[in-house]
Amino acid sequence: MSAGQIATPANELGVLETAWDRLWPALSQHAPTIVAVTEYDAICQALGNCAGQTILDLGCGIGQPVTTFAKASGVFAVDFSMEALTRYRTHPSSHVVKVHATALRLPFADHMFDVVVAAQLLPHLAREQRGSVLREVARILKPGGKAIVTTLHYNFRFPKLGMAKTGMSDGVYFFLHSADEFREELAGALQVRSLWGVWNYLPKTYQLFMRLGRKTLYWDRLVRRTPLSLRYGKQLVAVCRLRSS
Fold first, then answer.
1. Per the confidence metrics, is the pTM higher than 0.85?
2. What are the tens digits of pLDDT across the range 30-75?
3. Domain-located, residue 78
4. Is 197 a member of any domain?
């Protein structure tokens, strides 16, 4: 299968008319937000040198121009939305095969991938679906491989502000994990090696923080590997391996 081709498994659910399909056209017209840039910077840091490796971008959406992917021997981009796949953007040097599939039933052989990246996929799934997806990630991950999973973080600010932990936004379901909930769910299928919080700012510093623009990356890189990030981060990034038998 050539790079850029969209493969649709015969047993695909065929769910195309979704709230996501209505959102992707507008989202694809804008550059990634600083929040997304910060998260993908953390993903790249977790990936490290992936030269010669095979990467699965699971629940890829419209993708991101991640230069780290360009070093891989191959990238498979999977999403259940054909609208997202047709708009998928990545680094020009990346060799990407787009696959139309549901994350609940991946059309790949066992132990196929060196790296699986699932960025902001879990927050939009029900609990039982999240467990199924994580078991699929464990199934297709090579021994010694790495899974990088991110989610929305229900940090200490949210209940104080009366913000919902779960609900619907623009017709899309969302669920925010506490750090402990995220670690527990991941542990059902994977071994968590590291857990970071990203997009960190301290109380009463939001306006100053926003004025930094892309320079917030330097602050976030200093904080994300510290326990402080699990209190203040707005997203969580987990670096996982297969569980020891």
1. yes
2. 877 888 889 989 999 999 988 899 999 999 998 865 667 878 888 9
3. yes
4. yes
Question: Which residues of the chain fall below pLDDT 50?
Answer: 1-17
- For β-strands 141-152 and 166-169, DSSP reports them as unpaired
Enclosing domain of residue 215: 6-242
Report the half-sphere exposure of 138 (CA within 13 A, side-chain side): 18
Cβ atoms of 66 and 91 closer than 8 Å:
yes
Instruction: Give per-residue pLDDT as tens, 126-148.
Output: 999 999 999 999 999 999 999 99
Token pair in block for residue 137: 């990630």
Q: CA 103, CA 138: separation in Å to the nearest integer?
A: 12
In a domain, 129, yes or no: yes
Look at residue 1 and tell me if it is in a domain: no
- Tell me how far apart the alpha carbons of residues 33 and 27 are, in angstroms, rounded to a whole number: 10
Total domains, the chain: 1
CB 144 within 8 A of CB 175: no
CA dist 29 and 171 (Å) reads 20
Tally of CB atoms within 10 A around 20:
20
Instruction: Give the residue from 193, 89, 211 showing the smallest Cα distance to 147.
Output: 193
CATH of the domain at 123: 3.40.50.150
Beta strands in the chain (DSSP E): 6-7, 54-58, 74-79, 96-100, 113-118, 141-152, 166-169, 172-175, 190-198, 235-242
